[in-house]
Design brief:
CATH topology of the largest domain: Aminopeptidase
Helix content: 25-40%
Distance between the termini: 26 Å
Pfam families: Peptidase_M18
Number of domains: 2
Largest sheet: 9 strands, mixed
CATH superfamily of the largest domain: Zn peptidases
CATH class of the largest domain: Alpha Beta
EC number: 3.4.11.-
Oligomer: single chain
Structural class: alpha/beta
Keywords: Aminopeptidase, Hydrolase, Metal-binding, Metalloprotease, Protease, Zinc
Strand order of the largest sheet: 1-2-3-13-4-14-18-16-17
GO molecular function, one term: metallopeptidase activity
Family: Belongs to the peptidase M18 family.
Amino acid sequence: MSKEIIKDLLNYLDDSVSMYHSAKFAADKFNNAGFEELHLTEKWKLEKNGKYYLVVNNSTVIAFVIGENEKSGFRIVGAHTDSPGFKIKSNPLIKKEGYLQLNTEVYGGPLLHTWFDRPLSIAGRVFLKGESAHKPNVELLNIDRDLLTIPSLAIHMQSQDERGKLPNPQKETLPIIGLGEDFDLDNLIAEELNVKKENILSHDLFLYNREKSYTFGLNNEFFQSGKIDNLGMVHAGLQALLDASSSENTQIFVAFDNEEIGSSTLQGAASAMFRDVLKKISFALGNDEVDFINQIYDSYMISADQAHAIHPNYTAKADPTNQPRLNKGPVIKDSARKSYATDSFGRAVLIDIANQHNIPLQMFHNRSDLRGGSTIGAIIETNTGIRNIDIGNPMLAMHSSREMAGVKDQEYMIDLMREFFESK
């Protein structure tokens, strides 16, 4: 992999302190590459080979390149911008034994113990009084300093029964921010954003781990970071779209928010928003309803989310015959219960593309006695009628605050997605 690509990936991981910052990073990439910004509430005027992007509710990004044939199906790569962690509640101040703490709730399914004893801070979005009640201003917030931590309980104070148990998220994962008798989060926000406290209306704020991303290993073959799941796939998808040559098909990259909590939001994959975007693209090119329906059933989508590599310390957790390994290529994820959208048609398409371009592929199935996770693939198939295949790069420590993946796999994935975009 070129040093520029891996450096860009690590910078992206470090800069994406919230899903809002992740979306802004991607939007800035497309804007700097000459893509024109659109808005959901406008009537679009699109041109063949035109490049466009839009941001939905500050955290979902959709970018596309119009194909030569306005009636051809779409080629889509989808991922998600959010990662598991902690969201700050309203009225968050807790005063206990001289400590000042923030009241938080779990977002998604993080490995809770990996958040202990880390340098943490706060990031997200803040809504400020605007020109009218329905048009507030929004600012992104990143308090760029070590601000909080969640301290562990000393092992000497844990009974044998308590050791190894999951921490209680209401009592045992609350971060300490200081000492004293009072603290006002809005005062801190106002100071950071250089705004008046009385103009702050609301906010969506999250904790984030401030440890930087880095490569490591005998040959720097690995990288470690927070949020690799799923920003690794967001980075690969946006880079592939930027690198791809135009084709007769309209090429689309979408990074949804809220996959980690079920996708049932305006900006999530389960909403009507994405199908509306596809319809607006089709109609702006002069198609009618029947043309659009034909496009849908001639379209194909890669649902890209990280995959599990076999863990050398827990080999029994892997399927006996499907055991992805780091730096051995992208992984096709399959499940008989259709938690992944993959079927044999999808495998055939992707395997053919990979074989033509010497890109290695691996297979993942859960052990038959483990349920496993799910992604946006089946959701998109259900809500739009577009065929999907679920893929991802293999990784370790998924949902930890510090995850691990292979450098070479990022290159393979970008190549695979680019070739998919260009495929007929």
